[in-house]
Amino acid sequence: MTVLDQVNGPRDLDDLSEAELVELAGDIRAFLIANVSKTGGHLGPNLGVVELTIAMHRVFDSPTDPMVFDTGHQSYVHKLLTGRQEFSGLRTRGGLAGYPQRSESEHDIVESSHASSSLSWADGISRAFQMTGQDERHVVAVVGDGALTGGMTWEALNNISDDNTRRLVIIVNDNGRSYAPTIGGMARFLSGVRTRRSYRDLRERSQRAFNLLGGPGRALYRGVRGGAHGFLSRLTNNEALYSNLDIKYIGPVDGHDIHAMEEALTQAKHYGAPVIVHAITEKGRGFQPARDDDADQFHAVGVIDPETGEPVGAASRPSWTAVFSEEMLAVAEADDRVVAITAAMLRPVGLHAFAERFPERVHDVGIAEQHAFTSAAGLAFGGLHPVVAVYATFVNRAFDQLLMDVALHRAGVTIVLDRAGVTGPDGPSHHGIWDLAILQVVPGIRIAAPRDGERLREELREAVSIDDAPTVIRFPKGSAPAELPAVERLQDGVDVLRTTEQPDVLIVAVGPMAPIAIDVADRLAQQGIGATVVDPRWVVPVAESLVELAAAHRLVITIEDGIRVGGIGTRIRQTLREAGVDTAVDELGVPDEFIDHASREQILEDAGLTAQQIARDVVAQVLGSRIPVARPLPDDRVEQDTSSERSTTRPHGA
Q1: 79 part of the active site
Q2: Domain extent for 543
Q3: Is the bond preceding 628 in cis, omega lying within 30 degrees of 0?
Q4: Which residue numbers delimit the Transketolase-like pyrimidine-binding domain (predicted)?
Q5: Is 525 exposed, middle or buried (0-12, 13-18, 19+ CB in 10 A)?
C-alpha cells in the first residue's frame, strides 16, 4: 500500500512524517503519469504543484478555508487529496472533470477555467467573510505567473490592498510558463528572481554549510530556511514588485520543498492581512519527457506512452489548427501587411510556425485578450492587417473591445477562433458555443465557418483581403474532415452541396455540420422528400442567394454547433421575414445551457443534432401535415392537410 492509498481527505495529511510526505509526493506523480497518460488531460501543470498543494492542505483547512485555483488545470493533486482518486474516467461523461467542479466536491469553489480571475474571486469571498463575521476563515488563491499577465489580476490586487484586515493568502505558482514561456515585463522580472545568482548562491552555500554538521545541521537548516526567505526577498529586492500595493510578500520559496512551503504558508496564515507567497516550481517535474518538451512541457496531452511521452493513436488527418498554421505562413508570404497576435497561446492556436518564420510579425500579449483586440485595431490603423487567434471560449472576454475599438472604427482585423462549437471533455467554460450568437450583433462584422480544410484556406485569404470591417473565421477542435466539394458555387459565394428536383426542404449547414446535413438529405430522399443542402461559407451577413433559395422551398432547416438562441438560424429567419419570405424555419443548435464534459458526439446527440434525429423530425413535420411538400408523397403515406399553419420556429431536442 502506498502513502497515497492512506489519504482519503486533507486531514489524513496531518500525522504524516516528513519522509512520508516526500513519499506521498512521489506516489502522486507516479499516479498522475500512469492515469493521465491513459485519458489525456493537463499533466505538466499538475506535476509542478504536488508539494505546493500538499503544503496548502496541511496548513489550511479546506473547505472551511476555501481554495481557489486560477484556471483550475492544476487541480488534479487537490482532487487526489480531497478523496477523488478514481481517475479512469477523467474528462469523460460520468467521470471526474478536468477542472474544479462544485458538484464533485465541497472542496471545489470556482469552476470557470478562464485565467486571471482567481484573485477577484478571493477578494469577494474574503470581503464576504469579513462582513458576515467569519473572520477566522482564510481564503487561499493559487495564481500562476502566466495569469499575472492578465489585467484582471492587477485590478484585483489593487482592491485587495485597499483593506489590509482580511485573511487572504495569494500563492504565486511561478514556473515561468503559462502554456508556453511567460512573456513581457512581468516575466522578465520574475525570471530575474528565479535566476539571480545572489539568491541561488546564498541558498546553495547555506544548505552545504548546514549539511557539513550532519543530522543536527540538516535539522537546524530545516528550522531556519522558512525565516531565511524574508531575508532572501530583501536581498533580491522582490518586494519592490508589490511594495506600492501594501501587500506583505514572502519568498521566493522552493515550491518543491514541502517543509519550506509549510513554513512560508504558516507565516502567511498568522499574519492577519493579505499576503503573497512566491513559490518557484517546475512544470512537468518528475517526468523527463515533459521536462524535455520545450514547447509546453506537456501542458495538455492526449493519450500518451507513460514511459516515453509519445502520443498513442495519433490522428490520421491534420487538425484544423494545423491547416490554419500552414495557411497563415502562405498568407504572410504573399502579403507583408499580415501580422499575428495571440494571448499566451502561440502553439495551441498554431502560430508557432509563423513566429519561427516571421518573429518580428507576431505579438504574444500574454493572457490579455482585451488588450489583444484593441492593439489589433491600432495595428490596422497603422496600415497592417492583424490576425488575432484565440480559442472561441476566450473571445467572450474581449467583446467590448471588438465592438467599440475594432468594429466601430471599421478596422480590418481578422479573428480566428479555434475550438469553436462543442469541444467535449474540457467542460462548460471551454465549449466555444457562444461565439455565433454573441458576435453576430456587432455591426458590419463578417463571420465564416469553413466545412473542411480547403474552405478554411480560402476563407482565411478572403478574410485578410477585407480592410474595412472585422472578419471572423471559426472552426472546431480535432481533425479537419476530408474535402467536401460543392456541386455549384453561387454568385455570392454560397456553396450548393446537394441539389434536388423537388424543392421540399432547404438545409443550411454551418461549417462542420455539413456532413450531417448531407446525411439528413440522403435519409429524406429515401422517404420521398427532396432536400437541397447549402453551405453559406460566410454565415454573417446572410447571402441574398440564400433568401432566394429559401423562398423556393417549403421548409428551411438550419444546423449549427452553437447555441440556437440568437444563433445563425435566428439570423436567417429574421432576414427572411425582412425580405417578405414566409417559409418556415426550423433552427437546430445547442441548447442555451452550461454543458458538462462529455465527448462531442455525446453532446451533439443529446441536442438532437444527429442525422437520424433531424431526419426523423423533418419527416414527422411533413407527414404530420405541418409542412406541405412540392408533390404528393407516395400513396402509402399519410394524406396531407395543406391548410395547417407553417411553423416559423420551434424548439429542438427539448
Answers
A1: no
A2: 496-623
A3: no
A4: 318-482
A5: middle
Residue 169 within a domain: yes
Q: Is 114 annotated as a binding residue?
A: yes
* Bridge partners for 517 per DSSP: none
- 287 labelled ligand-binding: yes
Stated as kind and residue range, the H or E segment containing 242 is none
For the ranges 203-212, 412-421, 422-431, 560-569, the lowest mean pLDDT is seen at: 203-212
Question: Which tens digit of pLDDT belongs to each residue from 328-337?
Answer: 999 999 999 9
Whether residue 448 is found in the same domain as residue 533: no
Please indicate if the annotation marks 504 as binding a ligand.
Answer: no
Count up the domains in the chain and report the number.
3
Tell me which of 111-115, 165-169, 182-186, 486-490 is least confident: 182-186
Enumerate the β-bridge partners of residue 364. Answer: 342
CB distance 354 to 340 below 8 Å: yes
Catalytic residue among 369, 459, 560, 587: 369
Q: How far is CA 143 from CA 29, 55, 100, 121, 650, in A?
A: 21, 16, 14, 12, 45
The answer to whether 381 is a known ligand-binding residue is no
Give the residue among 367, 378, 455, 450 at the shortest CA–CA distance from 413.
378
Q: Is the pLDDT of residue 575 over 70?
A: yes
Helix pair 50-59, 258-269: axis angle to 10 deg? 40
The dihedral sign for the CA sequence 519, 524, 530, 536: negative
| CA quadruple 61, 62, 68, 73: dihedral, nearest 10 | 120
Tell me whether residue 283 is one of the annotated catalytic residues.
Answer: yes
The single residue of 79, 283, 537, 600 carrying the catalytic annotation is 283
Residue 639 has a pLDDT of 36
Secondary structure element (H or E) that encloses residue 159, with its range: helix 151-160
- Is 46 among the domain residues? no
Of 301, 295, 344, 350, give the one whose Cα is nearest residue 321.
Answer: 350
Answer whether 390's CB lies under 8 Å from 419's CB: no
Is 337 part of the annotated catalytic residue set?
Answer: no
Amino acid at 432: G
Instruction: Indicate whether 56 belongs to any domain.
Output: no
Residue type present at position 247: I
CATH at 227: 3.40.50.970
Give the active site residue among 58, 79, 137, 397.
397
Calpha distance 207→605 (Å, rounded): 60
147 is in an annotated binding site: yes
DSSP state of 402: I
Pair (224, 110) in one structural domain = yes
Cell numbers describing residue 113: 477555467
Tell me if 586 sits within 8 A of 647, measured CB to CB: yes
Are 423 and 518 found together in one domain? no
- Entry pTM: 0.85
Measured distance CA(80)–CA(24) in Å, rounded: 11
Biggest CA pair distance of the chain: 100
73 is in an annotated binding site: yes
